[in-house]
Specification:
Length: about 200
Amino acid sequence: MKHVVFDIGAVLVDWNPILAWSNDLGEAETKAFLGRISFDKLNLACDAGVSFFDAAQGLPDTEDGKYLSQYVARYTKTVPAKISGTWDILYTLKEAGVRVFAITNWSAETWPEGCKVHPELAEVFETTIVSGQVGMVKPSVAIYRHFCAEAGVEATDCIFVDDGLHNCLGAKAAGMDAIHFTGPDALESGLKARGGL
């Protein structure tokens, strides 16, 4: 069986940034705020190494900047639950002697906060590449190559699992096999089809 390389957000752990502010602003206003500041783009920049403080300073509206600057301190609220079916698969793989790794687009600031909620994230993988710590993000081929160098594995020996199809395509461009994650049952089927589980 090949090594399995997991994405984390929306594969092993649910992530919902709305939860950082919904108690204060309400869900509708939080959604409006996230849309107004183009949160997805800012978050990706922070996943690549920008600090949330710097991102907040760059917003034209100081009130929006104030809210964004609270994000790291409130991050634990945004990752409340594991996706249990995927964890079951991960531990089944480990028990079968399959090596498991992770590559995640996650900021260097919020990664420790996520590990406070789910300590297993810091313990279960042989090697974990956190994009904000290395200054490169999926789906860049560079991050997959960096992972292989750090983990001491060949890309052709890896199956990458990610909920983002674009990230799966990046992994394939780097020489890995990839499974587009749509749920634990489909992942289990995909791994079985490749001779695992």
